[in-house]
Amino acid sequence: QVQVVESGGGLVQTGGSLRLSCAASGSIFSINAMGWYRQAPGKQRELVATITTDGSTRRADSVKGRFTISRDNAKNTVYLQMNSLKPEDTAIYYCNADIRDGLYSVTRYWGQGTQVTVSS
């Protein structure tokens, strides 16, 4: 069994900051890429940022210069530091992790999501 659990969402004013965390636990051999996606009401889920095992990152153009993704491999945890938040960042944020959960098996696990609301 593998679990991926996000935390750190909440309500913040425009220009504020939040830090999201996502921890994977359970029967894990290793973790490849980890990432954050978000889904606003009435919109499709979109990529926010991803990070590989060696720390290579990719971010959506809309968050470059404001959001930073990082990970702690020893803790199987990925973080998303969000600064200069805007109302358009309001969404449910989902974490995912590509986990080697068997000798020949890699599965993408998703968390349950955490709400981020930015008030104007």
Protein architecture, described:
By secondary structure, the chain is mostly beta strands. It is 0% helix and 62% strand. The mean pLDDT is 96.
Could you give the topology of this structure?
Layout: E1 2-7, E2 10-13, E3 18-26, E4 30-39, E5 46-51, E6 57-59, E7 67-72, E8 77-82, E9 91-102, E10 105-110, E11 114-119
Give a short summary of the structure.
The protein is mostly beta strands. The chain contains no helices and eleven strands.
Number of strands: 11
Gap between N and C termini:
41 Å
Please report the number of helical segments. 0
Helix content percent band: under 10%
Classify the beta-strand content into a percent band: over 45%
Rg over alpha carbons: 14 Å
Shape: elongated
Feature tags:
120 residues, mainly beta, seven-stranded mixed β-sheet, four-stranded antiparallel β-sheet, elongated
